[in-house]
């Protein structure tokens, strides 16, 4: 198995425009922010704090996660090492390439996770068994 270097996966700054009259902020994701065309958008919410989501890898799909509200941790695993990144700002996102196992956990009350992905839903793109993931050739 060729291991993805998860140390290079980092938060991406999303343009934040602050209203000069103090009416809040606006963040924008346009064509040059992501290295893929967005084919699907979904969001997670009302996830209990003791629950986790994810628990899979993708063969081809790329994913960009944003904490629109609240916070949660994204555990990244390349089959050899693991690291955790906290998402807690709506103007920062996390680009997860294919070939990386991901788990989302420690959801705060009111957390909303927005997911922008590079493909429509395709069950054959998922690897849901960790042992299978560790032997898959990406």
TrEMBL record:
Q: Which InterPro entries match?
A: QdtA_cupin_dom, RmlC-like_jellyroll, RmlC_Cupin_sf
Superkingdom of origin organism = Bacteria
The Sugar 3,4-ketoisomerase QdtA cupin domain covers 9-135
One of its Pfam families is FdtA
Question: Which residues belong to the signal peptide in this entry?
Answer: none
Q: Supply the name of the protein.
A: Sugar 3,4-ketoisomerase QdtA cupin domain-containing protein
Source organism of this protein record:
Patiriisocius marinus
């Amino acid at each position: 198995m060729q291991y993805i270097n998860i140390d290079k996966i980092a938060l991406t700054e999303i343009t934040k425009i602050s209203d000069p009259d103090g009416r809040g902020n606006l963040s924008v994701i346009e064509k040059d922010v992501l290295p893929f065309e967005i084919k699907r958008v979904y969001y997670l919410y009302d996830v209990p704090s003791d629950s986790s989501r994810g628990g899979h890898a993708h063969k081809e799909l790329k994913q960009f996660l944003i904490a629109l509200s609240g916070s949660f941790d994204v555990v990244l695993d390349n089959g050899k090492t693991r690291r955790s990144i906290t998402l807690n700002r709506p103007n920062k996102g996390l680009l997860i390439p294919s070939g990386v196992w991901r788990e989302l956990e420690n959801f705060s009350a009111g957390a909303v996770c927005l997911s922008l992905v590079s493909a429509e839903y395709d069950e054959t793109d998922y690897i849901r068994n960790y042992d299978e993931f560790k032997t898959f050739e990406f």
